[in-house]
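Throughout this chapter, every protein is written as a compact record of paired, labelled lines. The reader may check this reading against the record printed directly beneath this paragraph:
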Amino acid sequence: KAKQALITPSIAEAFVPGAAVETVSATQLAGGLNAFVAVHAPQGLSQDVSFDWKQNGALVDRITGTIRGGRDAGYRTYSRKEHFPTDPRGDWTVDLRTAGGQLICRLQFRVV
């Protein structure tokens, strides 16, 4: 279960996310975007996950990683996307899923 989740243009040292955004311009995407999630995970858990970036419902990119449990504030992870389609406008979702396909968290933003 996600304890914190947001789309942000920046991640500072020690996995501290910048300000959340819900709408960005196509020009602002040039600097990239991050899908940041802090997931509650019990001690000893190690789980492969994927961040599925979708534009208007179509999968554009899948970025994989691993979460590890044992931190009260949640295991912090993020996916950074820097390369977007030529026309990135529309509704975007980023789904954080287990390797088995279980949805952990869904983030949304719009490109105008």
Notes: DSSP finds no helices and ten strands in the chain. The first strand starts at residue 2 and ends at 8. Strands lie at 2-8, 11-12, 16-17, 23-24, 33-39, 46-55, 58-68, 75-81, 90-98, 103-111.
